[in-house]
Design goal:
Order of helices and strands: EEHEHHEHEHEEH
Number of domains: 1
Largest sheet: 5 strands, mixed
Shape: globular
Strand order of the largest sheet: 5-4-3-6-7
Length: 170
């Protein structure tokens, strides 16, 4: 199966996966009418992922009041994701691709860990219709977006979405 092209301007596939509670969810449902930060991570056990999540946590308060969503995806089973999410204090949705149904199709297979076959770390900022605004390769830690880069992406998307973005003129 050929991987889909995950580049700015392309539409991200509408993933359908169980969430951290085991409930079936669709990415389009989670996005609703809001911008999305979509993060793929290796698993709870990776120190790079733990460091990135600790950095991402302060952004959740801003995302919630700014009508934006965060969604994280791994191959960890829902129960493991639920425990990791709770331990972090994250309130956003975690999706489980334990069966790796989407991993190859997305072309996000981590090639250096053949035993666990985790996701290749990547972050995408999406419009509500799942059009990719920006893609970040997180294989190398410095390739991951900073919170400020994510803020700027979410601002740019929101500005294009919200008809009342500009200051009213009298």
């Amino acid at each position: 199966m050929n991987a889909v092209e995950l580049v700015p301007g392309a539409r991200f596939p509408d993933l359908d996966l169980p969430d951290h509670a085991g409930n079936g969810r669709r990415l389009s449902e989670l996005a609703a009418d809001d911008p999305v930060v979509l993060q793929f991570y290796r698993g709870w056990w990776c120190p790079k992922e733990q460091a990135f999540f600790r950095r991402l946590l302060p952004l959740q308060d801003e995302a919630e009041v700014a009508y934006s969503r965060v969604v994280s995806v791994s191959v960890d089973p829902p129960a493991v994701e639920a425990a990791f999410r709770a331990g972090l204090g994250a309130r956003w949705t975690f999706l489980s691709d334990e069966s790796r149904r989407w991993q190859e199709r997305l072309g996000l297979v981590e090639s250096t860990d053949r035993a666990h076959r985790p996701y290749l770390p990547a972050v995408f900022t999406l419009f509500p219709d799942l059009t990719i605004h920006r893609a970040y390769n997180g294989y190398w830690f410095w390739g991951r977006p900073t919170n400020e880069e994510l803020r700027q992406d979410l601002r740019a998307i929101s500005q294009k979405l919200r008809s009342d973005w500009e200051v009213p003129r009298s």
